[in-house]
Amino acid sequence: MKEYCNFIESEVEEINSIKIQPLSSKKENLFLSLVVMVIVVIAYFLIQLTSKKDIGQTLTATQISAYKELSNVNNSFYTELTNSLLEIEALTEVEGEIPEIAVLEEEEISPYLKDDLWEERGALTWKKLEVKGKVYYLGISKQVNIVGNYLIEFNREAMDKSIIYYNDEQDDGRSLPKSISHLEEHWKEIVPYTGTEERKKF
Length: 202
Prior knowledge:
Layout: H1 2-16, H2 25-50, E1 63-65, H3 72-95, H4 101-106, H5 116-120, E2 125-131, E3 134-140, E4 149-153, E5 163-167, H6 175-178, H7 183-186, E6 188-191, H8 195-200
Parallel strand pairs: 1-6
Antiparallel strand pairs: 2-3, 3-4, 4-5, 5-6
């Protein structure tokens, strides 16, 4: 029995004496390098997913991309302008001509309606202009650092093909209307972001 106990004690001592050897410093450095590389690769792909991609729009010197060059606030404002063209078209069919700004306000058509949101987004002053047989809506912003100036050149035959121009010049309200005769010097045509460009990304 005593011999058996001695045998057990010797086995326990042998088990207790087993040592776990740490990895060599060389292997630890290699492991850490691999972890860092994996983190960098994941970060790169996350940045690529969240960044605005080159969507392949072909622009001239007098055009800007609604997707790439307008701020989020201006992009939202531009979308409202394009949506308002449908309502303006309906009013034009009823009245026989493109309506005055006062009519749009009465009909509570955004972004022409002077409400709280209008105040927060540059408080644009709108006016209807007729130059050389063409009809325009000119919107001059009081705060171009928030929302810029907009100019809509209406296409009576196809209202959805009306051209919307943009600039971010602070103006006293006198020089911009005169600049309609030479648009390219003051205004940039906004090119919309369409499903065609979305497909090009893939």
